[in-house]
Amino acid sequence: MSKKIRVGMIGYGFMGKAHSNAYRQATKFFPDLPYEPELKVFCARNEERANQFASNWGYDQVEKDWRKVVESEEVDLIDICAPNNMHKEIAIAAAENGKWVLTEKPLSMNVAEGEEMVAAVKKAGVPNMVWYNYRRIPAVTLAKNIIDKGSLGKIFHYRANFLQDWTISSDLPQGGEGLWRLDVNVAGSGVTGDLLAHCIDTAMWLNGPITEVTAVTETFIKERQHNITGKVEKVGIDDACAFLAKFENGSIAIFESTRYARGHKALYTFEINGENSSIFWDLHDLHRLKYFDHGDDALTRGWRDVHVTDSEHPYMDKWWVPGLNIGFEHSFTHGVADFFASAKSDKPAQPDFQNALQTQKVCEAVINSGNSRKWENTNVEL
Ligand SMILES: NC(=O)c1ccc[n+]([C@@H]2O[C@H](COP(=O)([O-])OP(=O)(O)OC[C@H]3O[C@@H](n4cnc5c(N)ncnc54)[C@H](O)[C@@H]3O)[C@@H](O)[C@H]2O)c1
């Protein structure tokens, strides 16, 4: 019999939906989990929309103040789907109240905040995780399994992009609903914390610690109307960022992210080149993994296009018959399943806060390097 874990969800935006869906699906497709999520309390400040959201997804109660949710005796787990400037305060209060705590990425606005959050969950001894969901796309997990087997041999290169095009217009305001990502006081940084954080998390998971970085950052549109103050204000985020990196294993990397790549909506790709083989993955084609093996017969050697839908592939035995794809939302269902499967074990699902803090350190070193125009050490401890 699985034990019920009562969820308190904070935020009804993009991620509030993705996570609510994941809690609903997880025990249906992963029936052997030791815990079963129960959608207990939903929290957002707009009461009418909060009520609609709660009724749509089946939450029992609605609350406007997140403090009441983290203190509620009827909640076991707090899930933070609010903007980045809210993560620290909610997570620490949740841990102090003995709740399990999950937060959306990035862990925090900066390293100092992240360290406080790590200390809080360690002190409270509560299970915790950060939603770097791309680790749980089956093709990406497969890449990890292939690399861990040593199939690539010595790794030389890591290359990642995360390209979008939605902030090109100078008429787009900053701040307020949906546009908090352009307000540095809410987001912490621009594409570095929003998009490159995903690339960095995946990169260090696949290829080990990043030790040094050198970056160029740019803010193409220097001032924008602020939706909340109504004034034209300086834009403090990085609109675009490119950085070079060195990994502890001797490989080198190039990362690029922008919201000014006309035509690209969410083009997250990575390629890894080793002495024996190479791997390439593309979010727009997320169920495929491209693989080149130099050991193949020379006459037929070429890039293989692996359709990651067979029951031998990670997570896929839980879904449909071979040949049928799953999508973006399933990575969150896998997150719930992995978190619940390991919540009380000595091998908790990753990335936990401590692990996600390492990504925060790289993000901060990238921003610092963009300002200093020098190589910066990351001080990552993995
Ligand atoms: N893992 C991913 O792929 C992914 C994708 C998108 C966003 N994110 C992360 O998820 C988080 C939320 O992003 P989003 O795109 O869902 O944002 P969003 O703007 O769509 O939604 C944010 C929600 O937070 C609520 N909120 C804000 N302040 C609040 C408060 N004080 N009390 C209660 N609710 C409050 C808002 O009302 C809204 O419902 C961010 O940290 C973001 O970086 C992760």
Describe the structure.
The protein is α/β, with parallel strands linked by helices. Helix content is 33%, strand content 25%. The protein contains 10 helices and 17 strands. It has helices at residues 14-29, 47-57, 66-71, 84-96, 111-124, 138-148, 184-187, 191-207, 330-342, 353-372; strands at residues 3-10, 35-43, 61-63, 77-80, 100-103, 128-130, 155-163, 210-218, 223-225, 232-234, 240-247, 252-258, 267-274, 277-282, 288-293, 303-307, 376-377. The strands form 3 sheets. It has a 9-stranded mixed sheet. It has a 6-stranded parallel sheet with strand order 3-2-1-4-5-6, with helices on both faces. The protein has a two-stranded antiparallel ribbon with strand order 9-10. A hairpin with a 4-residue loop joins β11 and β12 (252-258). α1 (14-29) packs across α9, α5 runs antiparallel to α10 and α8 (191-207) crosses α10 (353-372). The protein is globular, with a radius of gyration of 21 Å. The model has no long low-confidence stretch (mean pLDDT 97). Bound molecules: nicotinamide-adenine-dinucleotide. Nicotinamide-adenine-dinucleotide (NAD) binds next to α1 and α4.
